[in-house]
């Protein structure tokens, strides 16, 4: 509330179009509501919300509210009854234009059309315009202690500079970028005019210019395409996620993108009239995405969390209840091992949350894993158990079962979090994909290479199976040299011919073939004695862990690859590792750490907001734990996708470090 009051004072001093207004603080007492406070001051709820936008979320005892005290008698203090005329809003008309046309103040129009305190004019709507005769006023006189020019001079503001300004009331889903463009400003100019405004909230007044652009340049639509203006710092990865279109299709529609994404470019994208994009503030979300959110400092909802975990244990396949039978099942069943490891991390997170005051009612279900009846088993679980009060479901592991759970629970809008699947899933509105897809990993690495490849000699070694990523690399790095492996092998002489002697060489290796991986890494290792070489890939497959691919060679080449986690960084995870070893007697693997990180993130989000959806609107940055990072972006078709990706580097001492993160 303190910063809102300071913000209001700023507008009172510097906005010459605003009518002078007097205010007082009101301290909320027990039992008071916004309605009762409004009645006591003879003002409307909108008057309170205008100067106290936070009050729309509710008020608490001892909270301070800014009350416009002379608004209470603005209508009753008239010597003569105010008459009105009706005006039908035409296209492109603004409050400023109407105030000039009818010779009334903007605030006088808003006073008799309360919705305009929080909404913009809508073409075709009818509003009331008060007939203000000469000498008549509907406001109390301004305090005369310091004149506006004096206040501006004392504050270091040029009165001439502030003369051509007006106020803009922020409406839901507006962004700084959109507002700045509307008034012919840059975002920097808007922020300089409003230095106390950090995050936009509906109802806040901003100081803006008077030059309202006739055509808003951000989105233009027709029946077939939408035309979108690229915002600062946007890249391929963000654009493909925002509009649900792959990189190659975006380039096909916009050939200029072959030279890279540039701020201000206008792109053609397929129109999607049923897109859910309009329901989420993408721009403000992205503006805050580099902020690390510590949810532990925002805990407020300490109701018991109803958490369901669905994992494929397949316990019905274990014929006896003997210890040996379970041991054999664990040793021989990889899916069961992953489920148990993940669940051990879940339990660690529930205990950690309990220490923070968050109680959890945890229920666990065995979804089994029979390809013929996976979805049926999930539906049976939901049909035969009470899910009415469930706050979130973590799992199942597989794509088909996760989609079945999301579909079944979508009517109740119960969040379903996919913990491990890297497949692109059906766009259910309640589905949260916590693991970036392989395509996202590749796109992040391609963007990283494109942004950092200046003055590098780029060599791409890609086999026939990697034609899709080869096309992306060709578009992103048009100066790159390409080597096509033959018979599962790449000769050292072929690589040597493509390498430069006096420049840094970036070699991008795209293959899952062990022979190609081995020949390339060993050959480059020898060539690196005389040349500066770094090795990259857009996909680190399991064959990189093959005994024929030397970790020492990868380390000497400073191997770079995209990853969803930090691959069990011993230093960062030391505390967790020690607690896990004490509890379970062994070092946790990546699935155990992910179970902990994901579950703790869900519980902290539930404890710091009304529900999981509310948490993403409140905290638009990323959360990060021992090994995993979470930054959920809304998908154009529905649901949310974690797009947090690490670029990892293998150091010469075989340690891992984060080169960059997105």
From TrEMBL:
Protein name from the UniProt record: LysM peptidoglycan-binding domain-containing protein
Composition bias type Low complexity, residue spans: 136-153
Region (Disordered): 135-166
UniProt domain LysM: residue ranges: 24-67, 85-129, 166-214
The keyword Ribonucleoprotein appears for this protein: no
The UniProt record lists the keyword Metal-binding: no
Signal peptide: 1-20
Keywords from the named record: Signal
Similarity comment: Belongs to the leucine-binding protein family.
Organism in which the protein naturally occurs: Autumnicola patrickiae
């Amino acid at each position: 509330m303190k910063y809102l009051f300071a913000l209001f004072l700023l507008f009172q001093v510097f906005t010459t179009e605003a009518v002078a207004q007097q205010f007082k603080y009101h301290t909320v007492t027990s039992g008071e509501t916004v309605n009762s406070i409004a009645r006591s001051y003879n003002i409307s709820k909108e008057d309170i919300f205008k100067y106290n936008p936070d009050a729309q979320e509710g008020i608490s005892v001892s909270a301070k509210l800014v009350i416009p005290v002379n608004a209470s008698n603005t209508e009753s203090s008239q010597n003569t009854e105010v008459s009105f005329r009706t005006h039908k809003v035409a296209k492109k008309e603004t409050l400023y234009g109407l105030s000039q046309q009818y010779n009334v103040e903007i605030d006088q129009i808003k006073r008799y059309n309360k919705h305009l305190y929080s909404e913009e004019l809508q073409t075709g709507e009818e509003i009331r315009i008060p007939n203000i005769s000469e000498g008549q006023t509907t406001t109390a006189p301004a305090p005369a202690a310091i004149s506006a020019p004096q206040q501006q001079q004392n504050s270091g503001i040029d009165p001439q500079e502030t003369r051509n300004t007006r106020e803009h009331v922020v409406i839901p889903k507006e962004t700084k970028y959109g507002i700045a463009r509307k008034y012919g400003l840059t975002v920097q100019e808007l922020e300089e005019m409003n230095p106390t405004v950090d995050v936009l909230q509906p109802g806040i007044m901003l100081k803006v210019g008077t030059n309202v652009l006739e055509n808003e340049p951000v989105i233009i639509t027709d029946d077939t395409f939408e035309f979108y203006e690229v915002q600062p710092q946007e890249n391929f990865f963000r654009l493909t996620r925002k509009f649900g279109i792959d990189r190659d299709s975006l380039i096909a529609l916009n050939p200029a993108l072959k030279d890279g994404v540039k701020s201000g470019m206008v792109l053609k994208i397929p129109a999607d009239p049923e897109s859910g994009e309009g329901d989420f503030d993408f721009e403000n979300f992205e503006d805050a995405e580099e902020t690390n959110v510590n949810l532990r400092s925002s805990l407020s909802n300490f109701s018991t969390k109803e958490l369901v975990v669905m994992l494929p244990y397949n316990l019905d396949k274990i014929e006896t209840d003997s210890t040996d039978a379970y041991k054999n099942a664990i040793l021989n069943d990889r899916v069961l091992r992953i489920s148990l490891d993940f669940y051990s991390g879940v339990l660690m997170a529930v205990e950690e949350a309990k220490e923070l005051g968050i109680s959890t009612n945890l229920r666990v279900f065995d979804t089994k894993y029979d390809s013929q009846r996976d979805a049926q088993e999930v539906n049976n679980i939901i049909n035969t158990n009470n899910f009415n009060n469930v706050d979130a479901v973590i799992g199942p592991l597989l794509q088909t079962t996760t989609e079945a759970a999301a579909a079944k629970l979508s009517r109740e809008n119960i969040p379903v979090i996919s913990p491990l699947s890297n497949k692109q899933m059906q766009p259910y509105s309640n589905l949260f994909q916590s693991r970036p897809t392989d395509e996202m990993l590749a796109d992040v690495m391609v963007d990283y290479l494109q942004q950092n490849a200046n003055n590098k000699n780029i060599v791409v070694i890609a086999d026939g199976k990697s034609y899709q990523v080869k096309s992306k690399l060709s578009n992103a790095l048009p100066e790159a040299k390409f080597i096509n492996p033959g018979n599962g092998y790449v000769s050292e002489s072929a690589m040597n011919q493509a390498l430069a002697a006096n420049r840094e060489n970036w070699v991008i290796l795209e293959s899952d073939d062990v022979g190609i991986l081995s020949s390339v890494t060993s050959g480059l290792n020898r060539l690196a004695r005389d040349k500066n070489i770094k090795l990259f890939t857009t996909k680190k497959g399991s064959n990189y862990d093959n005994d024929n691919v030397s970790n020492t060679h990868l380390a000497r080449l400073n191997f770079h690859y995209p990853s969803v986690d930090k691959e069990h960084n011993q230093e960062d995870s030391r505390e967790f590792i020690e607690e896990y070893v004490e509890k379970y007697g062994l070092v946790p693997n990546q699935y155990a750490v992910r179970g902990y990180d994901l579950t703790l993130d869900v519980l902290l989000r539930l404890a710091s907001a009304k529900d999981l959806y509310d948490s993403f609107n409140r905290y638009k940055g990323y959360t990060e734990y021992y090994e995993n990072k979470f930054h959920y972006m809304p998908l154009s078709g529905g649901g949310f996708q974690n797009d947090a990706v690490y670029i990892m580097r293998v150091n010469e001492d075989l340690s891992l470090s984060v080169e960059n993160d997105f």
